[in-house]
Specification:
Structural class: mainly alpha
Distance between the termini: 23 Å
Main location: membrane
Pfam families: TauE
Radius of gyration: 16 Å
Number of domains: 1
Oligomer: single chain
Strand content: under 5%
Largest sheet: none
Order of helices and strands: HHHHHHHHHH
Helix content: over 70%
InterPro entries: TM_pro_TauE-like (IPR002781), TSUP (IPR052017)
Number of strands: 0
Membrane topology: Multi-pass membrane protein
Shape: globular
Organism: Cytobacillus depressus
Length: 239
């Protein structure tokens, strides 16, 4: 019963954040899903639900997408996918979580200290590659993109829409890679189906919240998401 309540809470909160920021679901859900499911199950459930959210939101946001940036990060992600899959199949999961959590926490602190970087085409490709590797290895594409877009002061509308469009591609490819090379299980699909109504509720609430946020509140929320994600990943790996 407690597990079910925790699952409902995780999916609802993460869906609200995804709709309001363009990033929240995988960042918030994955570390906590590790508390409930086996690693493979947690990653695949996250991929399925994140893909469902992107399919729902992207058609409504297509006019705000930066297609030039989207093209570059998508191409870059293709190079990162096999690296991430290799890491997932070979590297100890706890080691991977420690490394990623430290990267997220340190990068977030630097952003909060107003460290800014210039956006370039080459960096778009690199960030896409890192996101691809992160997605297939841990089920989270968000941190590299979020840190990069936040560091380049990308407008919140463009940030949110471009990220969601990218997820539509990267989560589809990552899910196919997982099912093909790591297999799947009934509990993954049953749990995902159970979560769909929760996602719909969360998206409605998230859209309501998004319309009432200014840029400053938007960035504060992003910093909170990153800090919680990095801390929870680190706690899970050391616990």
């Amino acid at each position: 019963m407690l597990t079910t309540i925790l699952f409902i809470f995780i999916v609802l909160l993460a869906s609200v954040l995804q709709a309001s920021t363009g990033f929240g679901f995988s960042l918030m859900a994955t570390p906590f899903l590790f508390l409930i499911f086996e690693p493979r199950e947690a990653v695949q459930i996250n991929l399925i639900l994140s893909l469902a959210i992107s399919c729902t939101l992207v058609p409504k946001l297509k006019n705000e997408i930066d297609f030039a940036v989207l093209k570059r990060i998508t191409i870059g992600s293709v190079a990162g996918l096999p690296i991430g899959l290799l890491v997932y199949l070979v590297l100890n999961l706890n080691i991977l979580k420690v490394v990623i959590s430290i990267i997220i926490l340190l990068s977030t602190v630097l952003l909060m200290l107003k460290l800014r970087i210039k956006q370039t085409k080459v960096r778009d490709f690199i960030v896409g590659g890192i996101s691809g590797a992160f997605t297939v290895s841990m089920g989270i594409a968000g941190p590299p993109l979020l840190l990069y877009f936040a560091g380049t002061d990308t407008e919140k509308e463009k940030l949110r829409s471009t990220a969601l469009a990218f997820y539509l591609f990267i989560y589809s490819i990552s899910l196919i890679s997982h099912v093909t090379f790591a297999g799947t299980a009934k509990v993954i699909w049953f749990s995902s189906a159970y979560a769909i109504p929760l996602i719909i509720i969360g998206l409605i609430l998230g859209q309501f919240l998004y319309k009432r946020m200014n840029e400053r509140l938007f960035m504060i929320l992003i910093y909170i998401i990153l800090l919680i994600t990095g801390s929870q990943l680190l706690y899970n790996s050391l616990g």
